[in-house]
Design brief:
Blueprint: E1 7-9, H1 11-18, E2 23-26, H2 29-32, H3 39-53, E3 57-64, E4 67-70, H4 74-83, E5 88-90, H5 95-101, E6 105-107, H6 109-119, E7 123-125, H7 136-139, H8 144-151, E8 155-158, H9 167-176, E9 181-184, E10 203-205, H10 208-220, E11 227-230, H11 241-258, H12 265-276, H13 280-304
Parallel strand pairs: 1-4, 2-3, 2-7, 5-6, 7-8, 8-11, 9-10, 9-11
Antiparallel strand pairs: 3-4, 3-6
């Protein structure tokens, strides 16, 4: 039974949770801030379809009218997609105010994890996580996603971290916080648009059941925090590292010049990279999200056994 007075669990999601069936959480920032309408809605519905095809129930998460939602209807997804940037990008600090004011919010990795755990959902598929930004030693710009991974018991499947970040420092931060970083069929941290980064993961696990077993052991031991599963973008959609890294460097320089900072940084950089690459980066982004949804559904299925 859901005892949280602010949380609405969609009937399909609640029925699956009550029956011990696999459920996969999905974020909503990708809908409102990730791409334009109607491509955002089409992508979100495709991700839900892929999860269903792989034996799990999708639970797209958002804040609508001040209600924490675990599972959205097609109408609600369309509403977020049409409203776009007018929806507040919500992290942990934003939740109390959005709820109290009855506002809408698109959930980041951090808030999706929080609401998923409230609802009893243990597996979450996203594109890439936030991390330690370049120059964080002076700006202290570190994503709340990392802190959430340290304290919230949800397994997150992603394509690594975007190389707009300092990947080495991101891994160091996760190590300090005791978050296991698993490479699915890889020993190297994928860098979102590309399969390689030059940095090693903590462990390579080659099967969804092995990952589910490791996470089950973590939960059973009462160890605080989540687990990060990094799933490389499929080879055929991987971008040329030189092209994407040059685009990222140019975008980072422009952000510095314009004084872009805080929660505006990532959307600004992604939009700039999309323009520089003629839309190729967006096409890659969509494909890696589909790939992560499939793996997350398989992990959730093994976790539910």
């Amino acid at each position: 039974m859901n005892l949280n007075p602010y949380l609405d669990i969609a009937p399909e999601v609640k029925a699956a949770l009550d029956a011990g069936k696999p459920v996969v959480a999905l974020e909503s920032t990708i809908i409102s801030h990730g791409m334009p309408y109607p491509q955002n809605v089409e992508t979100a519905l495709n991700v839900e379809r892929i999860i269903r095809e792989n034996g799990a129930v999708p639970a797209t998460i958002a804040i609508i009218g001040g209600r924490l939602k675990a599972g959205l209807s097609e109408e609600e997804i369309t509403y977020l997609g049409k409203k776009g940037y007018d929806v507040i990008k919500a992290s942990r600090r934003d939740l109390p105010v959005l709820v109290a004011r009855g506002d809408d919010g698109a959930t980041t990795v951090a808030t999706t994890m929080i609401i998923a755990e409230m609802a009893g959902i243990r597996v979450f598929a996203t594109g890439g996580i936030g991390g330690v930004h370049r120059g964080a030693e002076t700006t202290m710009d570190i994503s709340a996603d990392l802190e959430e991974l340290a304290q919230t018991g949800v397994l997150v499947v992603c394509a690594g971290a975007k190389s707009i970040l300092d990947l080495g420092l991101t891994l160091e931060y996760l190590e300090t916080k005791g978050v296991p970083v698993i490479g699915y069929q890889t020993e190297e941290l994928p860098a979102f648009y590309t399969r390689k980064s030059g940095f090693s993961v903590d462990y390579r696990l080659d099967a969804p059941e092995s990952i589910a077993a490791a996470f089950r052991a973590k939960l059973d031991m009462g160890l605080k925090g989540g687990m990060l599963v990094t799933n490389p973008i499929p080879e055929e959609y991987s971008m040329d590292p030189e092209v994407i890294n040059k685009a990222i460097d140019d975008a980072v320089e422009e952000a510095k010049r314009l004084g872009v900072h805080g929660k505006q940084t990532t959307p600004f950089l992604l939009a700039k990279i999309k323009d520089i690459t003629g839309g190729d980066s967006l096409a890659s982004n969509i494909r890696l999200v589909y790939n992560n949804a499939e793996l997350a559904a398989k992990i959730a299925g093994n976790l539910a056994k």
